[in-house]
Design brief:
The protein is an alpha/beta fold and about 575 residues long. It has 4 domains: about 5-45 and about 60-125 and about 260-325, 3-Layer(bba) Sandwich (FAD/NAD(P)-binding domain), CATH 3.50.50; about 140-255, FAD/NAD(P)-binding domain (3-Layer(bba) Sandwich); about 345-460, Enolase-like, domain 1, CATH 3.30.390; about 465-565, Oxidized Rhodanese, domain 1. The protein is globular.
Length: about 575
């Protein structure tokens, strides 16, 4: 390799600019050219929901550096000595002659760019349903800056009825950003829960309830079938699903994305089973002179070992750094992904790393789970917030397989701790002894992460039995079910917000040691202890077990995990 090598990068949003910047630092004399078919470069598309919510004034905020410098063509030329060709399409890759055929959209001119090494950072494209009426005005995919501008202009012009098609990450963020008093925002998800593949059903249900409490309607199990216009200006006015018909004025498509592989496929590069470009650990394609990264490639999942398509901006930037290093001959490997994702929907912070319980079981893992509720700081700190954590571990090895977090508190900090533990192959015992930072503004003495692992250990040791919120909800629907709900909150708590089920009785935990005999007439029934976070309910279950009650379980995560109970 020589320092004067010619590097051509196709794609100028995330992986492409990061590759160029890294390569320039390592190869000061290299000739680096980035081809971008659009007008905008190096922008943070993950900030679109903030723009829609009015939290940032304009889209230029998403394409400036921390120092306030705009990342445009001039910036890259002057700061990085990288040439950007915008409004230019790469139409073919001539691997034999190592040239890229490009088309200048403004000058209407074709030319060829020779390369020593080529990088594909072609990204992804939104999935557009093939249904009647999809071409109408007011149907927009939130994928490019122009899309975000169109959506914001529509709501500023007074649009009131908005349909978001897709209950995944982008759909949730878009719905929350667009929700305002006086607007009707409705989410339609074809699966039976929102955030499929990110959350297990019990957490997805909590997020759904939170959105609905904040005025966002959510319909699951509904598939978009058709769209009707006003018959005049070609504007959208009605959508039809497999279940009903709805009046709308704006449709935001958030149906997912698929990798842009046309260039790669046309020149004979290998496409993986996921439908994305196949790369090795060095992010090389089957052509050693062509690398690929970002949303156009597949990755290895670090838990399952399987190939997955999981496009994220954070992954794209990491890919760019690795490719830039390897263009300079450093032979750096990219190990893979955990599928770690974080998002905000309303006041809820939401995240997942590794495998969900459903995914782990589908892959054949023997799993054990624990769901806990707690505070993100000391409960007496004025800014404390509640959060919930679900851990999924391998039943036999106790290795962590995955984690999910939901709540208004700072749960993403906990997610990152667990993602690190998961990446390093930690088991429950190792996580239980992590020396995490504590001070009242930042955590509780036993952090929520450790609380979750301690619960797993308690359950394994048989100290108590837990009942999942979904199981108790099912039991609650069976009006004649022969069980007792033992509410161990204080009398004042129970008076303010009583348990709705008539099979409940309130005995505060502080009184239970002297009043447990009151339960003897119902000793043969299953007893489920409940409290807000699950801690007092766990203690009550242990106490009753010690008094000879044989069928006692506590509600995991407490009433926080099943808010409909009160």
């Amino acid at each position: 390799m020589t320092s004067s090598k010619r590097i051509v990068i196709i794609g100028g949003v995330a992986a492409g600019p990061k590759t160029a910047a890294r390569a320039r630092r390592l190869l000061p004399e290299a000739d680096i050219t980035v081809i971008e078919q659009g007008e905008h470069i190096s922008y943070g598309s993950c900030g679109f929901p903030l723009y829609l919510a009015g939290m940032i004034p304009d889209l230029t905020s998403l394409s400036v550096t921390a120092a306030g410098l705009k990342r445009d063509v001039t910036y890259f030329a002057q700061e990085k000595d990288v040439r950007f060709l915008v409004k230019t399409c790469a139409t073919f890759i001539d691997r034999e002659h190592q040239e890229v055929v490009v088309w200048d959209r403004e000058q209407k001119k074709e030319s060829r760019l020779p390369y020593d090494d080529l990088v594909l950072a072609t990204g992804s494209q939104p999935v557009i349903p093939d249904i009647p009426g999809i071409e109408l005005k007011g149907i927009i995919s939130l994928h490019h800056p122009e899309d975000a501008q169109l959506i914001r202009s529509a709501v500023q012009d007074g649009v009131k009825k908005i349909a978001v098609i897709g209950g995944g990450l982008i759909g949730m963020e878009a719905a929350a950003a667009l929700s305002r008093p006086g607007r009707e925002v409705t989410v339609f998800e074809k699966e039976e829960q929102i955030l499929p593949g990110i959350l297990d059903p019990e957490f997805a249900g909590l997020v759904r309830a939170h959105l609905e409490e904040n005025g966002i309607q959510v319909f699951t199990g509904e598939t978009l079938k058709g769209i009707k216009g006003d018959g005049k200006g070609g504007n959208v006015r009605r959508i039809t699903t497999n279940k009903s018909i709805y009046d709308v004025e704006l449709v935001v498509l958030a149906c997912g994305v698929r990798p842009n592989i046309q260039l790669a496929s046309a020149c004979g590069l290998t496409i993986g089973a996921t439908g994305a470009i196949q790369v090795n650990a060095y992010l090389q394609t089957n052509d050693p002179h062509i690398y690929a990264g970002g949303d156009c490639v597949e990755n290895v999942h670090l838990v399952s070992g399987r190939k997955v398509y999981f496009p994220l901006a954070s992954t794209a930037n990491k890919h760019g750094r690795v490719i830039g290093s390897n263009l300079a001959g450093l032979q750096e490997k990219y190990p893979g992904v955990l599928g770690t994702v974080a998002l905000q929907a309303g006041d809820y912070n939401i995240g997942k790393t590794g495998l969900t319980e459903a995914e782990a079981k589908k892959l054949g893992y023997p799993v054990r789970c624990a769901l806990v509720s707690g505070h993100d700081t000391a409960h007496y700190h004025p800014l404390h917030g509640k959060g919930m954590l679900k851990l999924v571990v391998h039943e036999e090895t106790e290795k962590l397989l995955g984690a999910q977090v939901v709540g208004i508190g700072e749960v993403i900090k906990r997610l990152d701790v667990l993602a690190t533990a998961l990446h390093l192959g930690a088991d429950a015992h190792q996580i239980a002894h992590l020396d995490l930072g504590y001070a009242p503004p930042f955590a509780t003495p036993i952090d929520l992460c450790l609380h979750g692992v301690h619960t797993l250990q308690n359950l394994k040791q048989g100290l108590a039995q837990a009942i999942p919120s979904r199981e108790l909800a099912r039991m609650g629907q069976e009006k004649e079910g022969d069980f007792l709900l033992l509410d161990v909150r204080t009398s004042e708590e129970a008076r303010r917000r009583p348990v709705k089920d008539p099979r409940s009785v309130n005995i505060p935990l502080s009184d239970l040691r002297t009043r447990f005999s009151e339960l003897f007439p119902q000793k043969e029934k299953k007893i489920v202890t409940v409290c807000p976070l699950g801690v007092r309910a766990y203690e009550a279950a242990c106490l009753l077990k010690g008094k000879g009650f044989t069928d006692v379980a506590f509600l995991e995560g407490g009433i926080s995990a099943l808010p409909g109970l009160i």
